[in-house]
Amino acid sequence: MNKGLRSIIDVTDSLMKNDVSGAKEIVDTHYPHRSISYNKRKLSAFEKLSLFIRDGFIDRYTGDQLIFPNVLRLISFNLTTSFPYHTNWKMSECHIAYWEFIPTCDHIVPIAKDGSDSYENLVTTSMKNNLLKSNSLIAEIGFSIHEKGNLENWNGLIDWYKSYIQDRSIEFFDDSMKRWHNALIRYEKENGEI
User: Fold this and answer.
1) 39 falls within a domain
2) Domain HNH nuclease, which positions (predicted)?
3) Are residues 126 and 77 in the same domain?
4) Domain count, the chain
5) Which of 55, 146, 164, 187 could form a Cys-Cys staple with 124, CB 3.0–4.6 A?
6) Count of CA atoms in the C-beta half-sphere (13 A) of 71
7) Domain range holding 27?
8) Nearest Cα to 188, choosing from 58, 65, 68?
9) DSSP labels for 109-168?
């Protein structure tokens, strides 16, 4: 039986006997709450993009290919009703591709389980898999760490994005699209073209 479940059952037995101090001792000894205090940093679009590029636009939990965010946004601008976008990603109003293919950053070992908030503990994953994993350890949900991708084989459709916008105005970009666009420009300025 799961250790946590065993502790909860023992606690309920103690409470049934009105033994609150015994229940407290069981929790404190066998299933203690771990209060974690940390200052979680908020990664900029540039820092996130750098991580996505480091990982080759690959979901490190599944090995699936992911897409530079502005690519899907441009599809939505052109196919508004067929490929809808919602600012809060409301599933009933947003194409599922946003959940399946937009990369995000995740802590391999969650901060809630004493993981560090360091670059080495971060990987690229899809929004869908980030939601599935939540605060679990990868072994708890059957995930594993896959190899980083090779940008020569897959770069999240950045080549398409750069080609598509080359002779087009980006004045219609909202703040989010501008952040991703500017992050890409900065990345290539500092590191060379992708």
Assistant:
1) no
2) 106-136
3) yes
4) 2
5) 55
6) 19
7) 1-33
8) 68
9) S-GGGT---SGGGEEEEEHHHHHHHTT--GGGGT--PPPPP-TTT--TTHHHHHHHHTTS
